[in-house]
Amino acid sequence: MNRSRLYDLLRPGASGSSARIFRAMHHAMVAAGVTVMLVDTVEAWRQVYGVLFENVFHLISAFFVAEFAVRLVAAPGAPGAELRPAWRARLAWIVSAGGLLDFLGTLPGLLNLVFETRDAILFGLIWVFKLVRYAPGLLRLRRAIGNARQALLSVLLGFLVVLLAASSLEYLIERGAQPDAFGSIPAALWWGIVTMTNAGYGDTVPHTIPGRMLAGVVMVCGIVTLALSAGILATGFAQEMRRHAFLRTWNIVAEVPFFQTIGASIIAEVARLLRPRDYQAGAVIVRRGEAGDCMYFIASGEVEIDVKPERLRLGAGEFFGEIALLTGAPRIATVVATQPCTLLRLDIVEFRELMGRHPELARVIYDAAHERLGASSDKQLRHHDVALDFGPSL
Amino acid sequence: MNRSRLYDLLRPGASGSSARIFRAMHHAMVAAGVTVMLVDTVEAWRQVYGVLFENVFHLISAFFVAEFAVRLVAAPGAPGAELRPAWRARLAWIVSAGGLLDFLGTLPGLLNLVFETRDAILFGLIWVFKLVRYAPGLLRLRRAIGNARQALLSVLLGFLVVLLAASSLEYLIERGAQPDAFGSIPAALWWGIVTMTNAGYGDTVPHTIPGRMLAGVVMVCGIVTLALSAGILATGFAQEMRRHAFLRTWNIVAEVPFFQTIGASIIAEVARLLRPRDYQAGAVIVRRGEAGDCMYFIASGEVEIDVKPERLRLGAGEFFGEIALLTGAPRIATVVATQPCTLLRLDIVEFRELMGRHPELARVIYDAAHERLGASSDKQLRHHDVALDFGPSL
Amino acid sequence: MNRSRLYDLLRPGASGSSARIFRAMHHAMVAAGVTVMLVDTVEAWRQVYGVLFENVFHLISAFFVAEFAVRLVAAPGAPGAELRPAWRARLAWIVSAGGLLDFLGTLPGLLNLVFETRDAILFGLIWVFKLVRYAPGLLRLRRAIGNARQALLSVLLGFLVVLLAASSLEYLIERGAQPDAFGSIPAALWWGIVTMTNAGYGDTVPHTIPGRMLAGVVMVCGIVTLALSAGILATGFAQEMRRHAFLRTWNIVAEVPFFQTIGASIIAEVARLLRPRDYQAGAVIVRRGEAGDCMYFIASGEVEIDVKPERLRLGAGEFFGEIALLTGAPRIATVVATQPCTLLRLDIVEFRELMGRHPELARVIYDAAHERLGASSDKQLRHHDVALDFGPSL
Amino acid sequence: MNRSRLYDLLRPGASGSSARIFRAMHHAMVAAGVTVMLVDTVEAWRQVYGVLFENVFHLISAFFVAEFAVRLVAAPGAPGAELRPAWRARLAWIVSAGGLLDFLGTLPGLLNLVFETRDAILFGLIWVFKLVRYAPGLLRLRRAIGNARQALLSVLLGFLVVLLAASSLEYLIERGAQPDAFGSIPAALWWGIVTMTNAGYGDTVPHTIPGRMLAGVVMVCGIVTLALSAGILATGFAQEMRRHAFLRTWNIVAEVPFFQTIGASIIAEVARLLRPRDYQAGAVIVRRGEAGDCMYFIASGEVEIDVKPERLRLGAGEFFGEIALLTGAPRIATVVATQPCTLLRLDIVEFRELMGRHPELARVIYDAAHERLGASSDKQLRHHDVALDFGPSL
Hints:
By secondary structure, chain A is an alpha+beta fold. The first copy, chain A, is built from 17 helices and eight strands. Chain A folds into three domains: 132 residues; 93 residues, Helix Hairpins, CATH 1.10.287.70; 132 residues, Jelly Rolls (Sandwich). In chain A, strand 4 and strand 5 form a beta hairpin. In chain A, helix 10 packs across helix 12.
């Protein structure tokens, strides 16, 4: 196996069964490692199962050391890295976020060997961060938070100012009544943060009337802070998700011959209406007799439609499922993917919009359905003809 | 009564008085069943009313067994099921979510009979899930959560990583000071989740200064998690609601002759402006003398307008209520539904938009109002003519 | 004073100094009434100031009885009520929400007189609801909640199902360890609601490990419930606010001659860009030397511009403030309202949009500014000419 | 140094190294001052380090007195202030928000000197508010809160009404069982606010069953209040952020010759697609070999492109980075800012939109890329030609 294929196998989003097996093992190892770390701190369990825990820990450590070594070997297989000598590609990988994390992941086992200390198991916590690589959504969360940085920092500054001011005031008000809990501003700050985040442990509580009135104001300020943060992140995150989805769909749509004919000027608009879906070979996309509220365009791969007595094969650029969408009747045939497929799904809501904005496209779909059904099924479609009479503009 | 009508009667959204009576009984039985289950666990009450509780429990159980039997009989009456033999339709129903739930709903009673155990009453909890079928909004919530799945999972992963890291750190910091509450990481995790969700029971509280500083950070992380979740769900849910409303309105609008003439290319746009409303026969839609801020298109059914001395009847495809909308005066006639009606309501805000985007439609409405009012009322409309002068574009 | 003027005086949004004085007195009475009710329950204070409290209470009661009587007299003065006999208008008012509340507001005093009981002071709580009439925003909140009713009910049902299921499970898990706190499901429900709303009193806390794991899940469910509610209400409320603002602005814009010439088809769009503002006579709208980031259209009233050496008066349909907007320089004149005015404010952001969408309107504004400044100031505008060169489309 | 330059140096957003040094010192002083105030209240620390704390306090006080003096001297240097005598500019500054804050900031030190009291250190809290001037995001938060004022006040009124009603009821229910905690309504209000904000200290908890049921309702009301506030602020804040970003970008875009040619009527639209970014001289904007998902327009400044063997310089109005955007290949050259630059960044998502809405602009970019790459690289671009075939509309 050459480096490039090895690299590809280890990629978070890689398809294929070996890549899946690796990922499953990786995640199981992380889960096992964290579990061992957790249970090993319980004295009672350690005394009984301590040796078992340590052995499992060694096994997991070995796995992560091996993973680090394999990734190091594969590093020059990264796309674009072929221009540089192998050692530079490896160095670049090690100092990257992923490489550093994998390097840190080898430490718990090594520390245990070198210092012969059981406490090394605690470092197993590092392994949980290895999961971050497999959560692409976190990246978009980080960007959303990054975009709203200035606003969030303002909220945080406001939070800190209110926290400090309220704690200082509460210190002045309560220090007489409770010299222990409110004996200094740092002590009052503990009360302040517990109250303002509405965590409300209840271990320090104001006793005087002005102190309680101030506490009420602080609690309401806490709600406002929370509401502001939610508002800020709602905006930023929605935008980030929409951008990401649009970009992915656009790239797929632009490759489909059917849409190429309509010109780049409206691909952007069509891309907003479609949603890409991936299917494994053999997956059933549409089942005969089900209700149908969407149609599909084939971006890549091939599907087989079981219209008895014959079987029809459709490839990239063709579409299916439009008949149930137009007639409202259940699906009349089962559709199965014969190869791994990427389909573009057009839901009925978005089909209605397409009809409104680009009637010429909807007309193409309507004509195809008409032809496929043949003259005998004419009545079915006519019932809904009103929806398909594209008005005086055609 | 044939299967198909029976099936229809049991459908969650069925109209008609027998369907309503069934639903009311069903909900009452669920409420009674859950109440019996609750109160039966209170020792004092059980000793006094135990026999009563058990009898009510038997009654409710019998009702749900009967419901299961009736639904099983009716299963072949489902739309599209007539193509299959009756036993296959029944089997398909039993393995569906609804069928399984109804089957589980028969168990509390059966267990009580078979094992003669009072604890079977506890299984009555299952009945509460029968209500889920009657809450279509839950379906859309589930879809909204499903659409935001990846983002929510990322937030959850982040939540878990922070939770684990913070609990482990707090364990290291506090185990010296509080060997009981922070004696192991699993014990510290209890503190972690209570703090990070801002529940703040206050049963385990850090005592050291670094422990409290970490706790403050954890609380703020909890607020950010909450804010992120709210932001994610706000986006997804709004979208899901809009899609659902649009689809329903589109289907109604497309059937109204008045709108058919305008062509499918703008039905989608008009469908965004209208809101469907259902009325029972005899319902008063508009009352003379009220302020009028909307007009209605009749999608199906018939209404009677009481314009003294005569009574006017309007059917599907016609509209009314536009006069008060245009003149700003109170309603000049009462409108009553003579049959169950579906009306499409156009609020004044949306009428303004329609005027802006499709002046030709607004012109039709204006002309009709003019004609209905006659020459004598010309002055009333003229006062607002500015709003109806559709500018140079006409 | 006739009934109609009296009615108008008592209207929540009435202008004029007598209406203001009445409102101020009303609110002060409500505040005083509630304060008396609060402090009268404190034993120590009642013993000392009891007689004072009672006297104030009598005074306030008398005020609200008087208010009820006056409103009853004024009821026939409501718009549209002149068609009915006076007693019917009064009856209609009493059974309305406002009338009922005012009637209830007379009860505390009457009960105190009739039953000679001091506890009547507690009924003063009713008075606080009288404020609701003066908060028009509450109406829109209620509509927003009403629009999202179905979704909120679904969330509530989900909340109840989770609450019930979790409490029942926790009862089974914890009843052995804590027979007091978790001795019955109703008792466990108390724990459930305290945990699921993340209030977290900490008076009942699970002790077993499975009980704590379940508690963690319940807390997270509570966060999701909160996030869902926030998401649902965010959508609905934003929509309601936009509708309200649009409707109000549209009505004002449609009356301004300047905008009438542009045709109804774009009034809706222009109405989105403008924000109405009310000014008292004598109010300073724009101050010489300030930075200017908006211009104003006069919807009604009159303003005086102090361009030395003379003073210019502008009336309804004219505009001012466009020069600072175009040149970026500070305001060159002070503008004062000589009568109560309603102005439509066009912020710089929206002016940029107007420029983009309706360059012909922006051109009108530009030409006026050019003319007002005269040839000498030509250079100032030219510096920004790029922004005003409306491209090849003109 | 003249007043105008001095004023500019002290401006929050000033660039240049002296302005930065001043800001860093200022923030460090605030942080130190607050820290001293905090630790000085801890008895144990004060006894040991008290003298040190006091000396640091004097130093910081001196700094803020000096800052006040310098700002007073510089006040006449404000833009537009040159028309007035210097003393009026200074007076105007002192009574402004910033001037008042700076004046208050001199008090802690002065009070300490005049009254010789150690408690003056506590007044150091005022210094933390000096940071507000440096957080422009807070201004927009305030405007967002201001815009949603009416809605937030309505929520607050609802919150208060529910709080008062619930506390009064709980007082009636619980006063028998807990005469201490619920002995008066003011006492019950403490329970009410702690419960309704979901802080949940747990120091006062209802014991009776009706009391607990009411508490459950109050907790849910608290969640609804929070959800409503979040919803309201989400709307307002998103709008405020978008307005601010649009205005800033518009002002930059309108100055770029490249966009001037397209006419003001679409600058507003283009301004929505671009994001301004500032770079210091010497900053690396694009690095050879990186993935490229955006292109840049130069609004001001100059950049150097290292296309071996020669170096290319581009100035205001030109653009770069479009080749990687079009081909999808890694960046083929490194770009460095030779002067402080303001660039307008066009991300790939927005480039797709531009392509859809204004194909003529995208065509210009495409042609430039074609020319720069030359004939030899024709194949690279052709692979993506589909995305660049601007359809029949060209």
